[in-house]
Amino acid sequence: MKKILILTNHSYMLYRFRRELIEKLMETHEVVLSMPFVGHEDDFKAMGLHCIETDVDRRGVNPKTDAQLLHTYVSLLRREQPDLVITYSIKPNIYGGLACERLGIPYYANVQGLGTAFERRGIAELVTAMYRMAFRRVRTVFFENEADAAVFRSKHILSAEKQRVLNGAGINLEHYALQPYSEHDVVHFLYLGRLMKEKGMDELFAAAWRLHQEGHKFVLDLVGFFEDEYQAEVERLQADGIAVFHGFQAEPRPFYAAADCVVMPSYHEGMSNVLLEAAATGRPVITCDIPGCRETVDDGVSGYLCRVRDADSLYAAMRRFLELDPAARQTMGAAGREKMERAFDKRAIVRETVRALGI
C-alpha cells in the first residue's frame, strides 16, 4: 500500500472534521498523522493509525521555532518516505510544503480560512511571500470558500488551475441528526466557540445587553473557552440573568438540540463548522455576511445575515428572530437542515476530495 502522510497543527480539530476522509483514505492507503497531541490522538491510534507527535507553534511568528519546524518536517519526510503528503493550516502548509518541494514529494494543501494573517500589515506581506514559495510545486490547494481562493489568485500566490473550492469539510448528517425543536418559555440563543474578539464577542454582548434593556426575554447560552478580557463581562451577563456560561464542552450536540437559534458573529471563517452543525440539527442561525458564513444560510429562510463588526445589525437580526412565532422558527430550522442535505453532505465532500487527490 502507498503511504499518505498528513501534517496538521491540531489533533482535536483533525479528528472532529476530517475523520471520515481519513477513514476513506485508509481503505486503499497506509495513513500516517503528524500533529501536536491535543485531543483524540488515542482515538486515531484506535483506528489503526500511526501517529507522530509534532510540536507546532500555532500562533507565534518566531524565526527560530519556524526554522526548527521546517527541519522537523524534512527529517520526518526522509524517515517516513511518504508517496503523498496532505497539509492542513498555515504552518504545515508553508513548512510542510517547503519540505516536500525540497525532497520532491507530491503534496496537497488545505486553506481553512485566512484568519488575521492577511489583515495585519507586515505579517500579510510575509505570509504572502512564504505561501508563494511553499506552493510553487503544490498539486492542488483546497479552499473552503471562493472568496479565499480569489485572494490567493489576486496576490499571485496560486493559479486557478491549482485551486479546488469545496463546501468546507462538510457535515456528517447522521452524527448531527435532525432534532425535535426545543420547547422553551423563552428563546435560547446559543454561541458555541472560543469567546474572543475575532468571533464577534463585543457585538454579541452589546446586542444582548440592548435586547435585555428593552425588556426582551431570552437566554444567551455560551459554550467554549473565554479569553481573559471577557471574564468580567461574562460574569456580569450571568449575574443579570442574561447569559449562562457552560464552559468548554467536548460534545456539542445536546447544546444544539436545546437551542432555539445559534448565533455566530465571527469576523472571518474558512467555513464555519458550528453553523453547519447547527443547521444540520435543524436550528436557525444568525451570522455575518462574510465568506465562510454566508454560504451556510439562506437569508430570511434558514436564518439571518447581519453586517460584520456591527452590533446594531446583529441586534436587529436577534430581535427579528425573537418576534417570530414558534412555528416560523421551526420552519426556518427545517430549511437549514434541507440546505445541509443538499449542499454540505460530508459523504459527497469526501468523494470529491478523494477524486481531486487522484487516488
Descriptive report:
β9 (218-223), α8 and β10 form a beta-alpha-beta unit. The mean pLDDT is 95. The longest helix is centred in the first third of the chain and has 18 residues, at 63-80. This protein has 13 helices and 13 strands. The protein has 359 residues and is of the alpha/beta class.
Computed over alpha carbons, the radius of gyration is 21 Å
Give a quick account of the main beta sheet: strands, pairing sense, barrel closure.
Answer: 7 strands, parallel
Helix content: 40-55%
Question: Which class best fits the helix and strand makeup?
Answer: alpha/beta
Spatial ordering of strands, largest sheet: 3-2-1-4-5-6-7
Number of helices: 13
* Rough outline: globular
Mean pLDDT: 95
Strand-residue proportion? 15-25%
How far apart, in Å, are the first and last alpha carbons?
12 Å
How many DSSP E strands?
Answer: 13
Helix and strand pattern = EHEHEHEHEHEHEEHEHEHEHEEHHH
Uncertain segments are: none
